[in-house]
Amino acid sequence: MANEEDDPIIQEIDVFLARSLLEKLYLFQYPIRPASMTYDDVTHLSAKIKPKQQKVELEMAIDTLNPNYCRSKGEQIALNVDGTCTDETSTYSSKLMDKQTFCSSQAASNVSRYAAAVYKKGELHLTPLHGILQLRPSFTYLDKADAKHREREAANEGGDSSQDEAEDDVKQITVRFSRPETEQARQRRVQSYEFLQKRQAEEHWVHLHYYGLKDSRSEHERQYLFSQGHGLAENTELIKSPSEYLMMLMPPSVEEETDKPMAPSNVLSMAQLRTLPLADQIKILMKNVKVMPFANLMSLLGSGTDPTAVLRCVQQVALLVQGNWVVKSDVLYPKDTSSPHSGVPAEVLCRGRDFVMWKFTQDRWVVRKEVAAVTKLCPEDVKDFLEHMSVARINKGWEFMLPYDEDFVKKHPDIVQRQQMLWMGIQAKLEKVYNLLKEHLTPKKQEAQSAHPLLVSGEQRVNMAKAKVKQNYGQLEKEFQKQKAEMKSNDTSAKMDVPNIRIKEEPVSEEEPMDTSAHNEGLNNGLVNGLHPAQGSTDPVNGHLPGGCIDRVAQELKAFVSSTFKKQFVLTLSELKRLFNLHLASLPPGHTLFSGISDKMLQDMVLDTGCKQILVPFPPQTAASPDELKVYALWEAGDTYDQHRQVLLEIFSKNYRVRRNVIQNQLSQECGEDLNKQEVDRVLKVSFCSLW
C-alpha cells in the first residue's frame, strides 16, 4: 500500500488494436549515418522483396554533392566495377558511385511481442509488426569488380590465336547415370545447406514502389495505423482479466523454442539435450557417438544424474563390448529403411552389424574380408560397420577403437553377466542365419577381456632379449667361476698356463678348421678354440691326443651328433656348428670335447652316424655362406616318416625350390598313399623343421 501511494496514477490512456495493416507492417532498421547526411537527403531508387523469406533489397541514391562525399574514391570504385566502357549493364552509368544497395536480415525470428504505436488525442493505437528487418550495405559490386579483373587476367594469359580457340572448343564429356535416390538420402539432401540456398534463390523478387515521407500516398497509408472503429467488437482482445493480460505480455517459455537458431538435423546443443527426458538424451548421445565408456556418458549427462537410471536406460539402446557401450544396430538402422550404398533393407544391415559387434566381443581384431565373406554385404556397408567401432591398422586389420574398460566390469558384474546372456542369444541367431563354422565360434582366451591387451613394439622386444641375455650370462659366469674354484681345489695337477697352449692346426689342403667363436662369441665364456685357458684334462700338442683320449672324444662327439639329428633330421653345417658351440658352453671345464674339434672331424662323424650329404642345387648367385650350402640329413630314423623323408630328400637333391603340389604328387606316387594338404604339411614340418 505504501508503494502504491508513492506512485500515484497520473493519467489513464485508452489502448486500441488496429488491424488494417495486420501481417503487412514491417519495421526497417537503417545503419547509422553521419548527421550531415540523414535519410531525408537520399532518394530510394528501387525496392524489391521476397515475401516468403522476408528479404528486402533497397537501392538508394547517394548525395554526391555533399561535402562529406569523396569524389575521387567514388570514381575509382566505378572504374573498378564497370571499367572504361559504359553500357546498359553498367552498375554506375555516371562513372561515379552515386548509389548504394542495402540488403535485409531478420533482427528477430519471433516478432509477436512487438507492435507499432501511434498516440493521438489521448488514445494509443497498436498495430502488430509482421517483421523487423535490419538493413546492411551490400558489397556485391566488389564481387563484380573482382570477376572483371579475373576475366582481364585470363584474356591476357590465354592468348588469342585461332588454334587455341579451336582447341578450347573440343571438350571431353563424361556421362554419368545416377542411382535411384532412397528416402533417407532424399531427406538428407532436402535438409542440406546447398538445397536451402537453392530454394531461396528460386523465389522471385517482387518489385515495390517507394513513396516519400510527405507523399500523399504515405499520408493515406499512415491512417491505417489508427483503429478504424472504437466498438467493443473490434477490441475484444484488450478486454482481459489482469492475469490473462499478463499471460499475453509474458507468454510461457514454450514459445522460446522458436527463437533458437536453425541447426542441421544431426546437431543438438547440450542445452537443448538436457531439456529432454533421460532416455532420449542417452539415445541421442549413443546414436551420435556410437561407442562410449560409461564414465564419459555420465560426464555428458551432467552432475546429479542417477547412475542406476542411466544403466537402466543405456541397456535399451546399446550393448556392452569389451566393457564399453556400443549403440544397437536397430537404433542406427530403423525399420523400413535401407542402405544408402546398396539398398539392402535394414534387417539385413542389423544382422551384419551385429556379427561385427559379436566378433569384437571375442577379440580386439577383426578382418574385413572375413566379415564380408560371412555377411555377403557390399564393401561399403562393411566399412561403415567397422568405422562405427574400430580403427584400421595397416597389415593387421581393424582394432576396437577403445581400450578394455576394466573398471566398469569390476564395478558392475551383474550388468556384465546380463550382457553376456544377451550375446549368447545373438550368437545363436547368427549361427542359424550365417551357418557359422567352428572356427568362427571358437571362444578366444579370457586374457583378452581380463586385462588390457599387451602390445610390444619391436624395439621393446630387442631390449627385453638383451636384458635376458645379460641376466643369463651373469648366471653362467657365476657357475663357471664356482666350478673353476672347485677344480682348482680338487685337482691342482690339472693347472696349466695360458701361454703354453698351442692351437691345433690342420692342413689347409684337407679342410679349414672350425671357428667356434664366429657364431656365438658370448657363449664360449673365455674359451680358446673350445678349451678353457685355465684348465684342461689333457695336453694336446698340434691336435695329437693320447689314444684313450681320442676314443673318448669320438664317443662324446658321436653322442652329440646322434642326439642332434634325431631331434632335427636335416641340418646345414652352419646350424650344426652353432648347436655344437651351445653344447660346449653347457659342458663343465676340462671336458674331453674341449681338446679341439675341426670341421673335418665333425663332418666325418656326421657321415659315420648314418647321415648323408644332400647336394642341393642352390643357384650360383645365392648370398649364403659355404657352411650354409652343405646340407646333411638323417637317412633312417626308425620312425613312420622315413620313406616320406627319403622321397623329399631325393626331390630337393634335384631342385632347391619345389611347389607344394609337386611334392604332394611325388609322395603319393612313391609311397602309394593319397596324402591331403594337411598331411603334406605335417611331413614337411617333421622333416625340415630346422630349415623350412
Structure commentary:
There is one protein chain. By secondary structure, the chain is of the alpha+beta class. Among the domains are: 140 residues; 160 residues, no CATH class; 142 residues, no CATH class. It contains 28 helices and 18 strands. The strands form five sheets. The chain has a six-stranded mixed sheet, with no helix packed on it. Strands 1-7-6 form a three-stranded mixed sheet, with no helix packed on it. Strand 3 and strand 4 form a beta hairpin. Helix 2 packs across helix 3. The protein is elongated. The termini are far apart.
Question: Keywords, please?
Answer:
692 residues, alpha+beta, six-stranded mixed beta sheet, three-stranded mixed beta sheet, RNA_pol_III_Rpc5, RPC5 polymerase
Q: Structural class, from secondary structure content?
A: alpha+beta
Count the E strands: 18
Instruction: Report low-confidence residues grouped into runs of 5 or more.
Output: 161-167, 255-265, 444-454, 493-545
Question: What about the largest sheet?
Answer: 6 strands, mixed
End-to-end Cα distance, whole Å, is 106 Å
- Which of globular, elongated, flat, extended, rod-shaped describes the shape? elongated
Report Rg.
47 Å
Q: If you average the pLDDT, what whole number results?
A: 75
Helix content: 40-55%
Q: Walk across the major sheet and give the strand order.
A: 2-8-5-4-3-9
Organism: Rhagologus leucostigma
InterPro entries: RNA_pol_III_Rpc5, RPC5_C
Biased composition (Basic and acidic residues): 146-155
GO cellular component, one term: RNA polymerase III complex
